[in-house]
Amino acid sequence: MASMLTGFEKIVEERIQQSIRKGDFEGLQGAGKPLELEDFSNVPEDLRMAYKILKNADCVPPEIETRKEILQTEALLENMTDERERLKTIKKLNFLIMKLNSARAGSIQLEIPQKYESKLVERMDATHMRAKI
């Protein structure tokens, strides 16, 4: 059974069909290519539409920017071999995580744990001990 179109829907459908016949939709940028869907999986479901609207308006919330920077820093850290650079990057990563957690007014259960904290403390202790010797 065909669905009934309202008067407004009929007008819209007519205009779309007219534009198709005139060729208005031919040669558009991105035609024939798959849509680039954005990954908002790290955004709570009830906030995704608001974040999408803000992003389209070039107004990305600071929390999202910080999360993005955390992911980039983690990726950078994975392939890093220089110990000094690793230590510097771990400090940056922990700072970003602390910044994100402190910006959030929610439950402590939602906080991201700082990465590599125990390794950092061990390394700093070992460095401190060597400096005394």
Walk me through the structure:
With about 130 residues, the chain is mainly α. It has a domain at about 45-130. The chain is about 60% helix and about 0% strand. It is built from 5 helices and no strands. The chain has helices at about 5-20, 50-55, 60-80, 85-105, 115-130. Helix 3 packs antiparallel against helix 4. The chain is elongated, with a radius of gyration of 25 Å. The model has no long low-confidence stretch (mean pLDDT about 80).
Report the average pLDDT across residues. 80
The gross shape turns out to be elongated
- Give the total of beta strands: 0
Instruction: Supply the number of helical segments.
Output: 5
Major beta sheet summary: none
Low-confidence stretches: none
Q: What's the end-to-end separation, in Å? A: 87 Å
**Cα-based radius of gyration, to the nearest Å:** 25 Å
The helical percent reads 55-70%
Order of helices and strands: HHHHH
Structural class: mainly alpha
Q: How much β-strand is present in the residues?
A: under 5%
Short structural description:
This protein has helices at 7-22, 48-56, 62-78, 83-103, 117-132. By secondary structure, it is an all-alpha fold.
Q: What keywords describe this structure?
A:
133 residues; mainly alpha
